Amino acid sequence: MDQARAVDARSGLLTQNGSHRVVTYSRAYTLVPTYECFNRCTYCNFRVDPGHSPWLSLEHVAQQLPTLRRQGVCEVLVLSGEVAPSSPRRDDWFCHIYQICALALEAGLLPHTNAGPLSRDEMAHLRQVNVSMGLMVEQVTPKLLDTVHRHAPSKRPEARLQQLAWAGELGIPFTTGLLLGLGESEADWVDSLGAIATLQTRYGHIQEVILQPHSPGQQQLQPGMSLDEAALVRAVHLARECLPPEVAIQIPPNLVSHQGLLDCLTAGARDLGGISPVDEVNPDYEHPTPESLEDAIAPSGWQLQPRLPVYAQYDSWLPEPMRSLVQSWRNSLSYL
Ligand SMILES: O=c1nc2n(C[C@H](O)[C@H](O)[C@H](O)CO)c3cc(O)ccc3cc-2c(=O)[nH]1
Ligand SMILES: C[C@H]1O[C@@H](n2cnc3c(N)ncnc32)[C@H](O)[C@@H]1O
Ligand code: SF4
């Protein structure tokens, strides 16, 4: 096996199909339990003040899910604003998220939750109703606690890394990543990638790392600059050097130009993440359709392939009955 294919190889999967190299994405729909958040990250276009976002109604969710299933959606991305760990409302918030995941599973869909840092106990519970979970490291440098994260206690680097370690201990297939362009240096990227690589070497649970270029929107507390695409391509190169080869690099296709996307693929990115009707985190940037993505990358020899929100090498980690549900998805269509 030559060097390029060795780097591409994800255990048990062929990433090369004839002469076409494979790029994956997940057919997702995002549910937002609540937009309320006790953190105030200055770049956030998602949050509203605590008490000002009605929680998503479970009845509405139960009604919506069968339609999504018929439309060919496989992933329910549960993305939430946060109630403080010390709040008397924390337990209700957590139960609400758990119930949304349980309803998604009942409808035959596959939940992936990113609801900020959770306690170990909360993670152990959510593991029963999620095929994978996620939390961005953002950046490990403490400098950002004096700037964009000054009013965001959830963004303390130790809390984020602790979460990744607990996910590893609990055997949860995990998605993490870096938010790029917050005022950090490229040396800081290497530190953040190194921290993720160390955890991956220890636990082997990191299925993918998202390289997320900061993208200013209309709702954020403070204006910010978007990351330039040449810098994003350098980040992909660095990530491919720092991370073990089995970890996929994900680029959000709505936050880059077509040429930027092709350059990221050449540099080693192989996944485009969950593609849903609305990017709830960056609502000013519409997700492209899978068809338009295929048109953009096929002339350069790339083939777009849907995948499930859990990568195949982790299927045996899943508790029943989720493991059987995932198996039936893999049998029904050629999902990676
Ligand atoms: O549409 C989006 N999906 C986002 N996702 C979804 C993600 O692409 C998929 O859920 C996973 O790849 C699993 O299929 C995230 C998931 C995480 O675990 C952590 C961060 C993100 C960030 C985004 C995002 O900004 N926009
Ligand atoms: C869910 C993830 O979305 C990312 N996130 C939050 N706000 C923005 C933005 N303006 N641009 C890009 N990514 C953002 C953070 O990395 C968070 O952890
Ligand atoms: S990025 Fe997440 S933690 Fe930060 S304010 Fe927005 S919702 Fe809250």
Topology:
Blueprint: H1 3-8, E1 16-17, E2 20-31, H2 58-70, E3 75-79, H3 90-106, E4 110-114, H4 120-126, E5 132-134, H5 157-170, E6 174-180, H6 186-203, E7 206-213, H7 229-242, E8 248-250, H8 258-267, E9 271-275, H9 290-297, E10 302-307, H10 322-332
Helix pairs in contact: 2-3, 5-6, 6-7, 7-8
Bound molecules: the ligand O=c1nc2n(C[C@H](O)[C@H](O)[C@H](O)CO)c3cc(O)ccc3cc-2c(=O)[nH]1, 5'-deoxyadenosine and iron/sulfur cluster.
Question: Can you tell me about this structure?
Answer:
The protein has 336 residues and is α/β, with parallel strands linked by helices. It has one domain: Aldolase class I (TIM Barrel, Alpha-Beta Barrel), CATH 3.20.20. 35% of the residues lie in helices and 17% in strands. It contains 10 helices and 10 strands. Strands 1, 2, 3, 4, 5, 6, 7, 8, 9 and 10 form a 10-stranded mixed beta sheet that branches. Helix 7 links the parallel strand 7 (206-213) and strand 8 (248-250). Helix 2 packs parallel to helix 3. The longest helix has 18 residues, at 186-203. The radius of gyration is 19 Å and the shape is globular. The chain starts with a helix and ends with a helix. Mean pLDDT is 93; it is low at 1-14. Bound molecules: the ligand O=c1nc2n(C[C@H](O)[C@H](O)[C@H](O)CO)c3cc(O)ccc3cc-2c(=O)[nH]1, 5'-deoxyadenosine (5AD) and iron/sulfur cluster. Its EC number is 4.3.1.32. GO terms for molecular function: 4 iron, 4 sulfur cluster binding; 7,8-didemethyl-8-hydroxy-5-deazariboflavin synthase activity; iron ion binding; transferase activity, transferring alkyl or aryl (other than methyl) groups. This is 7,8-didemethyl-8-hydroxy-5-deazariboflavin synthase.
